[in-house]
Amino acid sequence: MAMKTVAALSAVAMVATASAQAQTSTRAEPNPWLDCGIGAMIFPDANLEVAAAISNIIWDLGTTAVTSAASSPETCNGLDNVTGAAFIKRTYPTLETELAKGQGENLTALAAIFEAEDEAVFVATLRARMAEEVAKPEFAALSADEKAQKLYFAAEAISA
Amino acid sequence: MGRVLLVIAMLFASSPAAWASTELWQHQQWLKLGRWEKKRLPARYVSNIITEDFFLAEDGRRAPEAELDATLAGLVGPLGPEPDGHALCRYPGRALFLDREMQLGLPDPFAVCPELRAWSGNGSLDGVSVLFVAGYFANPGSAFGHLLLRLHTGEGNVDVQDVLDNAINYGARQSEEDGMIPYIYRGLTGRYQSTYSTLDFYHHNERFREEQLRDIWQYRLDLSDGEVRLLSAHIWELLRTENRYYFLLQNCGYRIAELLELVIDRDLVPHNKFWAAPVDVFHALGAEDPDAGPAISAAGRLPSRETAYRDGYRLLGRRDRRLVDAATSAPDKPLRDVAEEQGAELSAAPLNVLVDYYAFQEAAPTVEARKAEVLAARFQLPPDAGDDIPQPVPPHEGQPPSMLSVTVLSNDELGEGIELRARPAYFDFLSATEGTAAYAELSMADLRLVLREDNLHLRQLEIVRVASLGLAGDGAPNRPGLAFRTQIGVETLDLTCDSCLLGYAEASFGEAVELMPGLAVYGLAGGRLEGGDQITDSFSATAALGTVFRGKHGGIWLEAGFQQGIIDTDANEPYVEGEIRLRKGVQSDFGLTVRHEGATEIGLAFRRYW
Questions:
Q1: Which of A79-93, B67-81, B470-484 has the highest mean pLDDT?
Q2: Could you tell me which residue ranges the DUF7840 domain spans (chain B) (predicted)?
Q3: Suppose B532 and one of B52, B126, B502, B510 were both cysteines; which one would form an S-S bond, judging by CB atoms 3.0 to 4.6 Å apart?
């Protein structure tokens, strides 16, 4: 069951990766949601065995990312991006509330994943950038995935 | 075998102290490392791990001695270029144990095994917590709560809560794919295989606290560095194993307790029960034990998003509460206008409460619009997570889940009698359990016998009873939702007879209001299906009005209702039931009960909890 789940999700991820290849030629920056299948990623629900397999799924996605990077260097920057993207996708609602308040455990973890030298500066800068996004009239209509991508790119820009 | 003996002889020759360990296979920790249990008939050891390739010896599952020999032989081989497949890396728990007992001078598996090293945070592992995830009525398998282990990587700082920590889960495979009836059948009869799994804690955090809105209680264990290493190394070994899953006993609580007994010298597995409620593990961990010393170094609650909202709301002043109430009840009105009308400022405290509130509301255009408005307003203010919430009483300091009671009865038709009752788990409206839902009931296999005129009669066997008034309690704002009660079992027709059993299944829904902290009233209406010789109408409509008062030293519950036959409209029966309960600590209480259903009965109950 675990292997089937991993295989199925990896296949979905690869399809997503393949379908995204054409789009990447017009984009300047890599997008793990499109390039590495994060958008198609399914997180564990109630099935504990799937939960057990999720770390393998992330690893598979990382492998996909590395493969993509090898064949098309502009698609993915590597495993760190995928890990950060997967974390943001899974925890976006919590990250959003913690950013609004200005602190939280998930923000600390995010700073660690993006290897921020100074967590306080990272969080303050990220908060300022997301404040601009949240203030836009169209923000309310965005999907959770779209909001998560905005947060991801803000974090990427800060850590670059 | 000869090679094994030679290797052992060589090892022992370099370690005189180990000569005393010829019966090492009988060491309690070795037996726990292989999960060998001593069976009586026939007298032999058998491991509860059913994965044959977990064992190195040919019949290692039934031969702890041979398995020890085989492990020693495996450990002394060269590590090679890919050490993860070596016995030292596959069985780091066994290696640490044998190295400690026999002074083998083995390399540290956490240093030389790449996969183990990465999994354990590259040497930053420094503590273990047991987590109690509060019960979840939406899933019968989780109604009694759930257990996880969390392996901390705080680098010595216990205040650091790293959501990237490893969390260890134990559960039945494929159980979520089955419906309720197959799940109960397969769960009761051991037809699921189960396993430990490892996952970054943030996945569980999101699922339990943010999505299912369940509080998590975190108990940090009082373990030495060596114990943390041994326990985590043993967990690593078990990730490739399977057991059989039994819903009542060998469940997540049992298996996690079994795991902890490797390093905690206490009976954590409930040997004196035929069931294991997850909370039992915490009562065992928190019990006074002068011989063993404390098992817990800290206990605290990780609140769900809903609890964080309610806690924040309770701390607000009146004006800010009005602001929150108005903002959530009139989502179309601009937030600034709402604040102006209420004479309140859009300051950090009420906005934090609103941020929490909209984080768990179901998506809808008006909700999303208000949420964005709240977020935009909050982002404009400086960071401020608000005041720390005082930690509530942890579950292990509350009432234990199992109950025995004796009630002296006086029935105006049947005379005097004594009721004997056993409720394996868990709580009712007046219970003093902690970490359970307020104004809720959850019980399983609640058995009542009555002794009258030297005859013992079955009075009731309620297989399951689940009820919730949908109230948060303590004056907090409530989640909009129905009150409900479902129950199924066997009981006497009414109070006029002792030998008149019928089967029943009942479901009712309604509304409840908390009039003041601790005092609620409710109304329920529903249907009841009955079967038995005495029944005149199998289908009935039911209606009930009730009140619950919960105080510091006890409580009062009173309910009145009736049952109206649907086909035979003459078949109707009103009833009244109630109790005044006085607690004596959390281990026992007294109750004055009153019940009218055909006859009137008064009882004086003494209950004992364990």
A1: B67-81
A2: 392-596
A3: B502
